[in-house]
Amino acid sequence: MTKLLAGLVTAILAFGFTAPKEVVTIKGSDTMVILSQRWAELYMQKHPDVSIQVTGGGSGVGISALINGTTDICNASRPMKKAEVEKLKQRYNSLGVEIKAARDGLSIYLNAANSVHELTLDQVRKIYEGEITNWKQVGGADARIILYGRENSSGTYVFFKDNVLKGDDFAAGMQSIPGTAGVVNAVSKDKSGIGFGGAAYAKGVKYAKLKEDGNSPSYEPTEANIRSGDYPLTRYLFMYTRSRPSGAVKDFIDWALSSEGQAVVTKIGYFPVK
Amino acid sequence: MKQWVLMLSAAVLLYGAPVFGQDSDEESGGDSSEDIGSKVEAMGESMLEMKSTLDALKKLKFSGYVQAQYQMADTVGNSLFPVGSASAGTFGSNIDNRFSVRRGRLKAAYTADYAQFVLQFDVTEKGLGIKDAYTTITDPWLRGFSLTTGVFNRPFGFEIGYSSSQRESPERARFTQTLFPGERDLGVQLGVSFDEEEGVLGMFNLRAGIFNGTGGTAVENDNNKDFIGRLGMQLPFSDIGLAVDGGVSVYSGKVTSRSALVYDFGTVSGGPGLVLDSSAANLNASFDRSYVGADLQLYYDSPLLGGVSLRGEYVTGTHPGVPSGSAVYSGSDAVVNRDVSGYYVYFVQNIGLVNQLVVKYDVFDPNTKVEGSDIGKSSNGLSAADIKYSTIGLGWIFHWNANVKFTAFYEIVKNEEVNAAATSKLVPYKSDVKDNVFTLRAQYKF
What we know:
The structure holds 2 protein chains of 2 kinds.
Chain A: H1 2-17, E1 22-28, H2 33-46, E2 50-57, H3 59-68, E3 73-76, H4 82-92, E4 97-105, E5 107-111, E6 118-120, H5 121-129, E7 146-149, H6 155-163, E8 175-176, H7 180-189, E9 193-197, E10 205-207, E11 209-211, H8 223-228, E12 234-241, H9 247-257, H10 259-268
Parallel strand pairs in A: 1-2, 1-3, 6-11, 7-8, 7-9
Antiparallel strand pairs in A: 3-12, 4-12, 5-9, 5-10
Helix pairs in contact in A: 2-10, 3-4
Chain B: H1 2-26, H2 33-58, E1 60-73, E2 97-111, E3 115-124, E4 127-138, E5 145-153, H3 174-179, E6 184-193, E7 204-211, E8 226-237, E9 242-256, E10 262-268, E11 271-277, E12 286-302, E13 306-321, E14 335-351, E15 355-365, E16 389-399, E17 404-415, E18 437-445
Parallel strand pairs in B: 10-14
Antiparallel strand pairs in B: 1-2, 1-18, 2-3, 3-4, 4-5, 5-6, 6-7, 7-8, 8-9, 9-12, 10-11, 12-13, 13-14, 14-15, 15-16, 16-17, 17-18
Helix pairs in contact in B: 1-2
């Protein structure tokens, strides 16, 4: 009986004096999921008192969660829009805090067997708007082009629409796939496929070298080309908070921006901001 | 949306699976890879069909909110000093508390490539009303210009366009309610607004249009059309967590008198008062309804306190009312021309993620040319409609979750003290009328 009581008291004391883990939630860009998960793993190894929970869903979903108060950090592969900042202002009286976490070259994926190696931005636009429908129109085999892309909640979708399609709509036949990994997977299995997404995901597919126009040199989304600004489709990957970060949120962001955190960026396949 | 696609995919697969199973039973050798390929292709086509259906449905969005509230006034009102006129409507005689549905909104918006169609209804215990019915067409080239036609918010100031579901005080300022009842009007509006990428141009926006001037869905009652416009700017200083927004607004319109009786400010019995002009030429003559205004909103992410905002707006102008009050002239009453002014200041402090502290101060002077001491003197024509009001509002908002919020708001209403004779109807206004109002509101928004 004494032992039982002692055990109970020990258990209660242990329970009572165990500080609960501080939880930091990160939600948003699918492009950044792998990067954030790796960051979280390493950070939690060093800070066992903090739990970092990472989920994707797309930049739009993350920004909505930030506005609704259901995430601490939003990952976004595009900048916040005016209307989204307005919602933050209305609800929290703040503009949100934008943190540039990494750089990326928005990549055009082609099947490894595709004989096309390079495309101009205008050709990419016409392909995704449905004006160019056959690979032979851009120097490839006589085969219908199969378009793979992302859903409209994706920041990659919005960035591509704004910067490649210049705001125009995607061709109706584009197959929207949740997650960049899914796009890569589809293109890797489809000889006639074309997709787009972050540089870190291009496993089993090849990049199309991009050029500004027919007379420009073409570039792959390598670190050197992105740093020099030669690659025509570079973008930042962002973290957003509602207001100035503090506590564990600030500590995690500071760590992600440190040389250690930025080394993870390189390892994953993106490019450091500094 | 993603869930929808996943569910549909699952449904298609589930639908497809037994089909393969049956075929396998019927054919001893099972499907050839060619058969399976063609079935997969058929499923793909079916998916594309469903996707196109879903894409069309995605363009239609429903949103709305309900505000249910309990209100308690300092005292019961009566015909001499109505209570709550700027707090969701006057309390009934001998009533000092009430439950009501202040707003019950349902909005449907269909957004296509370069056009948007919007209908919004308001359903309360008072009935069903139309709030918005408009279409907006955006230019397909620069995407910075838009044309809106129908019934929609007047492009004037800040508070008119600030949604009641977001606004921190239960009601708009007294001057907004008086000069722009219902917020909306029927007309056509040009909008100019560019994205941030356009540099300096992206910091400015313009909305300007021509309206009936009758307000809301009221039928046009004359040939005069009113011009309303606002030039706005947004200056974000993101590095220091500060945003400075603001604008200047103009309302230039006219009302048509359906009476020969017109009152203007002048001298009556040696003092200020309303002078009657009853010349026949006044019938069907036009009288100015014109205001200018400026508004400013500051948002600051304070390192110590969190998000805080300070918002203010000032309006002044000439307002054609009626003898019994400051409502915008309509019908066949005499016209009473008054110079008016009003302003408000909001202070909103976010406390943590879910709480907000609100302090609001608003002032409306329906006749800037008279003092309280002028009102109540015999035969000068001045009435309760000329009394200046100021209101201090103190509120607390609790955001339970993304959809639900609770607001507790206390309005301390102070009227200008008048100089009324003992037999005058204005006697209650010789001192501050006990007409403070407490509002407890629950809102669900989706």
